[in-house]
Specification:
The chain is an alpha+beta fold. It has one domain: 3-Layer(aba) Sandwich (Protein Transport Mog1p, Chain A). The strands form 3 sheets. A 7-stranded antiparallel beta sheet has the order 5-6-7-11-10-9-8, covered by helices on one side. The protein has a 3-stranded antiparallel beta sheet with strand order 3-4-12.
């Protein structure tokens, strides 16, 4: 009788463990084209390369390519961070108080630029815009970064600016933006 109880308890536990894994996302197995499984950030609407790393800064979490390094920057009245990789320079400016105007947009500042596009999206229920364009020169200290991507969440006081070497670099910057998640009391 004792063995029967142990067997029944073991069966119930195994069944519970099996049910707990049903419906959970599994990373795809590596293939010839995809040597490492893809990563999907919790808030992301896109797959990220498996070797990207998580950054936590300015009450945010987001993924960046492994080669990104933080560069020293100092904000006066906001959280300011800069990260650079070989193809992208990413700047973050996060102020304490955002702009809570329903029709506010930065798109008019850039709509006359070459290769302009605007994507409206949201992060944690906050309106967001991804603005892209190209320029002949940049404000960064690297003149080879002419493909620009801006991520703006006015209500949260967040602007992320990516100066990129190529269209592919700009696509990576957009994936960084789409991985952004607010942490702490910013939700």
């Amino acid at each position: 009788m004792q063995n029967m109880k142990i067997l029944l308890i073991t069966f119930v536990l195994l069944e519970a463990l099996a049910c707990n894994n049903i419906g959970k996302r599994q990373d795809p197995a590596p293939t010839a084209e995809n040597k490492e499984p893809a990563r999907v950030a919790e808030n992301s609407r896109t797959e990220l390369p498996a070797d990207w790393k998580l950054i936590s800064a300015c009450s945010l979490q987001f993924y960046v390519p492994r080669d990104f390094k933080e560069e020293k920057t100092q904000g006066i009245d906001s959280c300011v961070k800069t990260y650079a990789g070989k193809n992208i320079q990413l700047s973050i400016d996060k102020v304490l108080v955002g702009i809570d105007l329903p029709n506010y947009s930065r798109s008019n500042e850039y709509s006359t630029k070459s290769d302009y596009s605007l994507e409206k999206t949201s992060v944690d229920g906050k309106r967001a815009e991804i603005i892209t364009f190209s320029v002949g020169e940049t404000a960064s200290n690297r003149s080879d970064l002419i493909y620009i991507a801006i991520f703006d969440i006015p209500e949260a006081g967040l602007t992320m600016l990516a100066d990129c070497k190529s269209v592919e670099g700009r696509k990576s910057a957009i994936n960084i933006f789409k991985s952004v998640k607010f942490v702490g009391n910013e939700r």
